[in-house]
Design a protein that fits this description.
- The chain is an alpha/beta fold.
- Helices cover 42% and strands 17% of the residues.
- The chain has helices spanning 3-10, 38-55, 93-101, 122-137, 157-160, 167-186, 195-205, 226-232, 254-263, 285-300, 312-321, 337-343, 362-370, 375-378, 384-396, 398-410, 414-426, and strands spanning 19-22, 61-66, 73-77, 80-86, 109-114, 141-146, 189-192, 211-212, 240-245, 269-274, 304-306, 324-327, 349-352, 379-380, 435-440, 443-448.
- Strands 3-4-2-1-5-6-7-8 form an eight-stranded mixed sheet, with helices on both faces. Strands 11-10-9-12-13-14 form a six-stranded parallel sheet, with helices on both faces.
- Helix 2 (38-55) packs across helix 17 (414-426) and helix 13 (362-370) packs antiparallel against helix 16 (398-410).
- The two termini are 42 Å apart.
- It has 17 helices and 16 strands.
- The protein has two domains: 3-216 and 415-444, 3-Layer(aba) Sandwich (Rossmann fold), CATH 3.40.50; 226-410, Rossmann fold, CATH 3.40.50.
């Protein structure tokens, strides 16, 4: 695109109260995130609501996104200016972001999304704190949204193929600690989606002022009733459908769940795996072997249905067909996007014991109490007997679990989440005075940033 065309698009957006979001984002025509990453879906849904919130106060939204097929694009979409300017995986991607920010010299407020592999591999992850430090030197008031906080790399041993108690594991744990310390020091304001992630960050870095804003719900239109969805997918009225939703990964326990159903002889209990290969891992040999093991179980068992990657327009079909959604995670690395998605459909759900800390979030704890459930009712250990006991409990008494989803949904719709992010963006100028926003018990206050 010619320089004069860029300046024409920038005009009207280069304003002090505009907000820049730096994150991966779906394509202009092809909205699929199949070849991108989960953050692209998050940013897609978040910006739809955030743009409306900003527009209500005459503010503008700019998204600096990754290039697709190496092509730079600048265009307006739903009132937002989309600038596809950085190459994922290239060490120059942060330089590309900096040069683009020169077009927006008047814009002071940025939201930077971070998830491992969003910008590239280990090299780009190592450069990320330097990128944030440079933003700080430029006197840009930015908020970092940390989607993951990992304290021990061995909790992801099967995901990363790093054996516990090895020099390699020791090295990566030290690298993680350094990464979070440098990132926390560089960031004026930090947002996490669960309280446990904030506690982890405090343990690692001393930062005790992370803002907790829940992960927004997937804004997916519903085109099906449960009966219609089950019929379309070939299930009978008597089939009890257990749904796993999301990318197939070791830390999410996809293989564990498949093996449980492969060994089960329970009639009319079906496993529906609505997910596919992770784009960030697809070329790694140990991940390919992981997928092969899952596929062998699926091929040998008629009670298991593997859909492959699910596009947004098909999500309602699989979610509506489900009687319960199961998240068999081996470890808690981030807020669960799949959980946010299925809450949109008010579905009963069970989470593994690894995710029990979610239930301590204020809205989660309140919703449990109102639904007359405990954390023990909705969590299970990755043990055969405990899992099937909890699953049968949902099958016999689904209404309380449905009520929990309904209650929890109310506090996590994107419009509510977007307003909380707007609060943070509006007050981000305090960062220039050495202050950081803190969200505690639903109120916004300020404390010294150290």
């Amino acid at each position: 695109m010619k320089l004069d065309q860029k300046f024409q698009l920038v005009e009207g957006f280069n304003e002090p109260r505009s907000v820049v979001v730096i994150a991966s984002f779906p394509g202009k025509k092809n909205r699929s995130i199949k070849e991108i990453d989960a953050i692209a879906s998050y940013t897609d849904h978040f910006t739809r609501s955030f743009q409306k919130t900003l527009a209500s106060t005459n503010q503008k939204l700019i998204v600096l996104a990754q290039k697709i097929d190496g092509e730079e694009e600048w265009y307006i979409e739903n009132g937002m200016l989309i600038c596809r300017v950085w190459d994922k995986g290239s060490p120059l991607c942060f330089f590309q972001i900096f040069t683009t920010l020169l077009f927006f010299r008047n814009v002071k407020t940025l939201l930077v999304q971070f998830e491992f592999h969003q910008f590239g591999g280990n090299i780009n992850t190592g450069l990320f704190p330097l990128f944030l430090t440079t933003l700080r030197v430029w006197q840009k008031s930015f908020t970092l949204v940390l989607h993951q906080v990992v304290t021990d790399i061995t909790s992801l041993s099967g995901h990363l193929n790093i054996a516990p108690n090895t020099k390699r594991a020791w090295f990566f744990n030290k690298a993680l600690l350094s990464f979070y310390k440098m990132t926390a020091k560089a960031s004026p304001t930090i947002v996490v989606h669960n309280a446990i992630l904030g506690k982890r960050l405090e343990q690692m870095t001393g930062r005790d002022d992370a803002i907790v804003i829940p992960h927004g719900l997937g804004a997916i239109p519903n085109h099906y009733t449960k009966k219609n969805a089950k019929t379309k997918l070939g299930y009978t009225r008597d089939d009890f459908v257990v749904l796993y939703f999301g990318f197939l990964t070791w830390y999410k326990g996809a293989d564990w769940l498949v093996e449980e159903f492969a060994q089960s002889r329970k009639k009319n209990i079906k496993l529906l795996i609505a997910g596919g290969i992770s784009p960030n891992l697809k070329d790694i040999p140990h991940y390919q072997r992981f997928i092969d093991r899952i596929q062998k179980h699926v091929d040998a068992n008629t009670s298991i249905n593997l859909t492959g990657f699910v596009e947004d327009e098909d999500i309602s079909l699989y979610c509506q067909a489900a009687d319960v959604v199961v998240l068999p995670y081996r470890t808690l690395m981030s807020s669960s996007g799949p959980l946010a998605m299925i809450l949109s459909f008010k579905k009963p759900f069970l989470i593994s014991d690894a995710l029990r800390e979610y239930t301590k979030d204020q809205d989660f704890a309140t919703s449990l109490k109102q639904a007359r459930l405990t954390s023990g009712d909705i969590t299970f250990r990755l043990r055969h007997q405990d899992f099937w006991y909890k699953l049968m409990k949902v099958k016999r008494h689904p209404n309380r679990y449905k009520r929990l989803s309904t209650l929890l949904r109310a506090s996590r719709v994107w419009s509510t989440v977007a307003k909380r992010f707007h609060e943070v963006a509006e007050d981000s100028h305090f960062a220039h005075e050495g202050k950081s926003a803190i969200m505690r018990k639903g109120s916004l206050s300020y404390a010294r940033f150290t």
